[in-house]
Amino acid sequence: MAFTLLDPATARAMPWKNGGGTTLELAISPVGASLDDFAWRISSAQVALDGAFSSFPGVDRSLAVLAGNGLHLQRQNGQRQTLISGGAAVAFDGEEAISAHLQDGPITDLNLMTRRGAWNHELRSLWLDGEQTLRIDAEALLLWNTTSHSVRYQISEGDRQVLPAHSGVLLENEQGPLKLGCDHPSRLYVGRLCKSSA
Q: Which residues pair with 51 in a beta bridge?
């Protein structure tokens, strides 16, 4: 089983592209890629001030709030969206001009980005209460545990693994059923990263 644990405590801290804050780079492909030439990137940041998003032309983005009281997004078309902790992720083009406004204090987010035309992705919230089985149908699958207790996961006949609190795991080049389990109700984010068809 090809899996990589994503731990914010050991992730590389990097300045935002626009210099307005700091983000934790949890995973990037290819390894060592820059912000201008990555195929995909997974990161998490604490947002403590209102401000504009960095511009990522040619990139598709999804954003979810992991902790905090919420974030308002002012979209380029005038639409206003609110993200809440554990709620649905929002997807948008990296070149879209978006400004973020905190609802009540800092938030921590999860950010998934893929290079348009080469990769695509989706990021969804999943409520786990007991046992559940997903099907791995992507080149890479991200599981992120937002809760303060661990959850379990197991691929096919592999050994049962533990995903610690407030951390993630990236499963690459795996197919088939993925068994999930928890002793306490848990909120996960599931990200599917797929190569775009020619």
A: 100
Task: Give the tens place of pLDDT for each residue, 38-49.
Answer: 999 999 998 888
55-77 in b/e burial notation, b at 16+ Cβ within 10 A? ebeebbbbbbbbebebbebbeee
Using CA of residue 108, residue 19, residue 100, residue 40, what is the dihedral sign?
negative
Percentage with pLDDT > 90 across the chain: 79
Under DSSP, the state recorded for 158 is: S
Question: Alpha-carbon distance 98 to 180, whole Å?
Answer: 35
The model's pLDDT over 21-75, given as tens digits with 9 standing for 90+, comes to: 789 999 999 999 998 999 999 999 988 889 888 899 999 999 999 999 999 999 9
Pick from 15, 25, 80, 23: nearest CA to 47: 23
Residue 142 token pair: 């991200």
Task: Count CA within 13 A, CB hemisphere, residue 61.
Answer: 21
Q: Which of 137, 184, 140 has its CA nearest to residue 26?
A: 140
CB 24 within 8 A of CB 43: yes
* Range name among 44-53, 119-128, 137-146 with the lowest pLDDT average: 44-53
Q: What is the CA angle 89-91-92, rounded to 5?
A: 150
Q: What is the pairing mode between strands 161-163 and 151-155?
A: antiparallel
| Token couple for 167 | 């951390």
Q: Distance between CA 157 and CA 132 in Å, rounded?
A: 16
> What integer is the mean pLDDT of 74-79?
91
